[in-house]
Amino acid sequence: MFPISQYAYDQSHQLSVYRKLGSQRRPRPPAAAAPSRPLQGRRLLIASSGLLFGSIVFRRIYKKKPVSEDLAPQDFDFSARFNATASQFDEDVDCVEWLYGITKLRKKLVQQAQGNVLEAAVGTGRNSEFYDLRRIVSLTLQDQSKEMLEVAKAKWRETHPEYEHCRFIHGSALEPLPPPTPRKTDTPEDEGYDTIIATMSLCSTPGPSLFLRSLAGHLSLRNAAVQDDGGDRGPARILLLEHGRSYFSWLNYLLDQTASAHAQQHGCWWNRDIGKIAEDSGLEVISTKRKHFGTTWSLELGLPAEAKGVNRQQWLEDTRHKIAVQQAEVAQAHVEWKERMRKQEEARRKEEDLEAWRREQREQMKPKES
Fold this sequence. Notes:
Blueprint: H1 3-24, H2 41-61, H3 79-85, H4 89-99, H5 102-110, E1 115-119, E2 136-143, H6 146-159, E3 166-170, E4 195-199, H7 208-216, E5 237-243, H8 249-266, H9 274-280, E6 284-291, E7 296-302, H10 312-365
């Protein structure tokens, strides 16, 4: 047999053997169908949230009549706007906060509160239902808006009618606040609060870094150097839930472009750099967590070393001096802004009067019909 023929014969014989062996093997089970992956609730939430945010941004950027950028400076006091919207505030934000998961973040943050607790800029009391009163000795709720504080009072009495150690303070958190009550001792170390809560407050607070520094001046020193061992309350701290700038430059650009109009309508500057605000306050940043493309911030702050011990009084005096300087600068900025707005209004009225005169002249120059 020729070599080629012999080779072909060997190959065909070997193939037939393989086929016989293959037929004797156990047949493979049919391949399982790939599991279906329906759109999960979280994905649906992200998709719908993105569409909602995109539609809001699109409407604000591309509307036919652009809003003037010469609005109030970022340190403008928007208390009057919150007074006007207090009655409908919860209704306006309930759906958005639930959609973005902010309500769950509020609950997670507030349930960490323990000891003597101060909630600054409480607003309408959106955190009231989440407090674990078994861990709390006393609770102080403060806000600069009287109308919002009244809503918070009604909500608290409805949610916790039997709790007695809760009080409400109308005023600015930049001013000295009374110590917690009841106090266990009369020592200066026990005059402060073990936990200070502030949620969605830095966006609307004049001088947010000094706001944090002022809050830190109300922290207790009694446990400031004691680690949490389960039986102790642990070091006093400030817990924040805020919204501000993102990880991404394109999103920050959109926030910047719409910040003035949003602040004018809602009293909220949503493009503030929360991380830099915390850094500029001089407080110890214990932890930082971010969600929603980095726009939602959860922070834990503590007293810096210079605010403890013998240097505490000097640190407090320095804080009060900086607040006084900042308030004077803000007041001057408001005067200049109002004067600028007055001149712009005068110019607008003159332009309207001139345009009316021109229309009248054109009407007079038209030939009269016989």
